[in-house]
Specification:
Strand order of the largest sheet: 1-2
Structural class: alpha+beta
Strand content: 5-15%
Order of helices and strands: EEHH
Radius of gyration: 16 Å
Number of strands: 2
Largest sheet: 2 strands, antiparallel
């Protein structure tokens, strides 16, 4: 991929996919976006992961990140 811009380059380190540039208070920009071949856009999982990294950088250490992964199921069983 010699012709690709630097933000589209594949990295040898997986942690580079979550690397963000701080622009201002609570304002971040991605340094690397992976665009799969023949894709219409960037890889969504990477965008969501970068958003979570930015969110954790915007709050104090006393706050934690809680995620609840659910799948399609009977809502009565959850509560």
């Amino acid at each position: 991929m010699e012709d690709a811009p630097s933000y589209q380059m594949e990295s040898s380190q997986p942690s580079d996919a979550l690397d963000l540039e701080k622009l201002d208070v609570n304002l971040y920009r991605s340094r690397h976006l992976w665009i799969p071949r023949r894709a219409r856009g960037v890889f969504g999982g990477q965008v969501i992961s970068q958003a979570l990294v930015a969110a954790t950088n915007c709050v104090g250490a006393e706050y934690g990140l809680h995620v609840r992964l659910t799948r399609l199921m009977n809502i009565q069983r959850i509560f």
